[in-house]
Structure formats: C-alpha cells, structure tokens
UniProtKB/TrEMBL annotation:
Pfam families: 2_5_RNA_ligase2. PANTHER family: PHOSPHOESTERASE SAOUHSC_00951-RELATED, PHOSPHOESTERASE YJCG-RELATED. It comes from the Bacteria. The lineage of its organism: Bacteria, Bacillati, Bacillota, Bacilli, Lactobacillales. Signal peptide: none annotated. This is 2'-5' RNA ligase family protein.
C-alpha cells in the first residue's frame, strides 16, 4: 500500500507524453504525488490506517500542481517533475502520515522528501 494524492490537470498532454516515453506504468497509474511509499500492511489494519489518514488528510487545501523543473534521480532511474508551488503542507502531511504506527519505523530519513510527480 502506498498513499498518494491523485492529480487532475486541465492540460495533462505534455506530462503524459513524457510519462509515456519513460514510464512503463504510465497507462496504469495516473499522475500522483506519493505521500507514503509502498508498505506491506495487513488486511486487519486497513480500517485503522484509513481512520488515521482521514485525521490528517482532510486539512490539505486544494492546490494547483505546477512543475518548476525536472531532476534526474540516478539511483532509482527516474525523472522527477518537481512541483513549483509551496509544498510545505504536503511535506507536513507526509511527516504526519509516518506517525501512524504501521508506518512509523519505515520512513526513509536518509532521503529528503521532495513532492514530485515521477515521470519514470
């Protein structure tokens, strides 16, 4: 399970062209900003996790994702579309979600969290 903000764009043609070229999953996974990276959870814990997510996620205001630039992530072979808008609320939500007991010991503190859309 991962936790993401699913994005909708007025004009997503350019991003989808880039994703189509580099991301083999582009047709299966729509543009999104990952908040909690994939974790193994048990079926029994899903309701608890959803309840915890609802405590924090409802405070995030709508925002317009604007890409400021692209960065290469050579370690994971990705192209990242870095969001231009002030992303402090997204970063706070990311940190809060890792306070959920099922995720608490899995946060990667060695990698700074940068809200982005993975283009591959």
């Amino acid at each position: 399970m991962n936790i993401s903000i699913m994005l909708t764009f007025h004009d997503d043609q350019s991003l989808n062209q880039l994703r189509k070229q580099f991301d083999p999953l582009y047709s299966k996974v729509p543009p999104h900003v990952t908040l909690v990276f994939p974790q193994h959870i048990t079926f029994e814990s899903i309701d608890t996790i959803i309840s915890e997510i609802n405590k924090y996620g409802t405070h995030l205001e709508n925002f317009t994702p604007i890409v400021s630039h692209f960065e290469g992530d050579l370690e994971y072979h990705n192209i990242l579309a870095i969001l231009k808008r002030d992303t402090s609320a997204i970063k706070v939500l990311h940190d809060k979600l890792y306070e959920i007991p099922e995720f608490a010991d899995k946060q990667r503190l060695d990698i700074p969290y940068t809200p982005h859309v993975t283009s591959r």
